[in-house]
């Protein structure tokens, strides 16, 4: 433990295309929150960008062999995720960030993905929307599944047909393409919920290109607030979360892991709806 305690770093591997990191502000704010808390201990974030899961696991093995980090933050929990087990086998303390349920063997900073979806759906129902779609992140991610289940259950409880689902990858290209496909359907949705800000802004552009006015005929809601959302025309309604504070909480759990202390149960800040110009009443010809 002695050498590991002097590493002075918390490791974070992001397995996603590099081009997304330059466009998507979420992880930059998240890392800033982690760094702010670590600075109190003269520690830093060891950030490594990879393009796939095998490369991520290889990075953990190198870190363990060279004793480069005191703890690891695992992001984007996935179905059947092997990373917590691999990290335990390597002897690297780890914290899972963003899972809805705690891992019995690995400290977890939990996230409520259900309440924000319910809040957004309630708002859309109050506005008269009955044909709702969702542009998701990758389906294998736990939070994608949980958010989708919450939306499906909410629609069924309201007596609506299941929402139309379109799987994306958080990129602008996916947001634009999938929105265009949705709007070309015989009975297109009157409201679309997106899993991030980048896809939502691109979806707004796609609607404009097809001559579909927002919010007169289409309402859009983005998960994650950002400057992109606030500067769009119209400004995007969002499910906003304090990402910086989220990073601070994750860092606090990581420090407890690194010190070999019991890790307190923590929740990330819950996203809340921020209504803006991209949501409005459903068009009259789409109401029951």
pLDDT below 50 for ≥5 consecutive residues: which ranges? none
Major β-sheet, in short? 6 strands, parallel
Question: What is the share of helical residues?
Answer: 40-55%
Q: How many beta-strand segments?
A: 12
* CATH third-level topology of the largest domain: Rossmann fold
Structural class category:
alpha/beta
Series of secondary-structure elements, N-terminal to C-terminal: HEHHEHEHEEHEHEHEHEHEHEE
In total, the number of domains comes to 2
Could you give the order of strands across the largest sheet?
Answer: 2-1-3-4-5-11
CATH class of the largest domain: Alpha Beta
Overall, the morphology is elongated
Q: What key attributes describe this structure?
A:
288 residues, alpha/beta, Rossmann fold, 2 domains, six-stranded parallel sheet, six-stranded mixed sheet, 42% helix
Model description:
The chain is an alpha/beta fold. It folds into two domains: 140 residues, Response regulator (Rossmann fold); 141 residues, Rossmann fold. Helices cover 42% and strands 18% of the residues. It has a six-stranded parallel sheet with strand order 2-1-3-4-5-11, with helices on both faces. It has eleven helices and twelve strands.
